[in-house]
Design a protein that fits this description.
Strand content: 15-25%
Helix content: 25-40%
Shape: globular
Order of helices and strands: EEEHEHEHEHEEEHHEEEHHHEEH
Distance between the termini: 19 Å
Length: about 300
């Protein structure tokens, strides 16, 4: 599975600092990147923020992203390491991007994914850009690097093969913190075309299980902690607890089991009934999206573009 890592912390403030909130078109830079990855059918998207940063989470509500907070954000590589540490057993490869370059295309993302090399770097007119694709089996090599050369230095020290992928995509180079030339790319960007997105919910008297609840259970299953799952989602513990209570009320069975304290500490786990629910929901969503994408092509493709799917 391909994951995506969006770096929103790791540069000092100022002219060259990261600004996830900067408006690019009619949406923030961080939201544009997250939507682009979702349009490319990437479902596990991680955003690395500063330790005391809550504004980035508020820029992308209800998008089912995972938020990590890095206390060491003096360098971009520190934030990348935070993301790789979290993802190293959760994906086969990752696309690494940062919020100052939000105008790369879906076609570029797909070209990097299909290349299948250790490290893939997009290049336009002889100049390398972002995002960069890294195979998960090489995460340890990057994580073990202690030098001062940033990600480029870590790649060089690892001795890994770097494949340059030629693309016709000026968005890989366009930095929103350096002039206004990026504005010329916005009308032609993928997100300026019509494209479909779907959110499926289960209902009884009211909606009670959808993408948010599904992500919460998945994160509890991965972290063995409801509080950690809530932090990764950017929601309060009380909200997460209320979501669990609603699920258990509607289903009539426990969806998580918790143990308090003790010598080995407390933990939470997802019940077998809830794990089956998650598998059924995943399978349903995958089939439903396939059908709905075909309907979109039938009814809207003449008005959209070939890159919108």
């Amino acid at each position: 599975m391909t994951a995506a890592l969006i770096i929103a912390a790791g540069k000092k403030s100022g002219r060259d600092g990261f600004q996830p909130e900067k408006e690019v078109g009619t949406i923030s830079a961080v939201r544009r990147i997250a939507l682009l990855f979702q349009q490319a059918n990437i479902r596990r998207i991680v955003v690395v923020c500063g330790d005391d940063d809550s504004k980035t989470e508020k820029l992308v509500p209800h998008m089912n992203l995972v938020f990590l907070h890095s206390s060491n954000t003096g360098e971009m590589l520190d934030s990348i390491k935070t993301g790789l540490s979290y993802l190293q057993d959760k994906c086969t490869q990752v696309l690494i991007s940062h919020v100052n370059i939000p105008l790369f295309s879906v076609k570029t993302v797909r070209s990097l994914i299909s290349a299948g090399e250790d490290i893939c770097v997009p290049s336009c007119r002889g100049e390398n850009g972002h995002p960069i694709l890294l195979q998960a089996k090489h995460f340890p090599a990057i994580l073990s690097y202690e030098g001062a050369g940033g990600l480029a230095g870590a790649i060089q020290a690892s001795g890994l093969h770097r494949e340059i992928i030629e693309v016709e995509d000026e968005g890989i180079l366009s930095n929103i913190q350096k002039g206004h030339s990026y504005e010329d790319l916005i009308p032609h960007h993928d997100l300026s075309q019509i494209w479909p997105s779907f959110r499926f919910r289960l209902n009884r008297e009211r909606p009670f299980y959808g993408p948010g609840a599904h992500q919460l259970l998945r994160l509890v299953d991965e972290t063995s902690s409801l509080s950690k799952a809530c932090r990764h989602m950017g929601i309060s513990y009380s909200k997460g607890r209320n979501m669990i209570s609603t699920l258990e009320q509607q289903f009539g069975y426990s969806v998580i089991e918790s143990r308090q304290g003790g010598r080995d500490g407390g933990f939470s786990c997802v019940t077998e009934e809830a794990q089956q629910l998650m598998r059924d929901y995943d399978a349903f969503c995958a089939e439903a999206e396939t059908v709905l994408q075909e309907l979109f092509k039938k009814h809207f493709a003449p008005q959209g573009s070939e890159n919108s799917l």
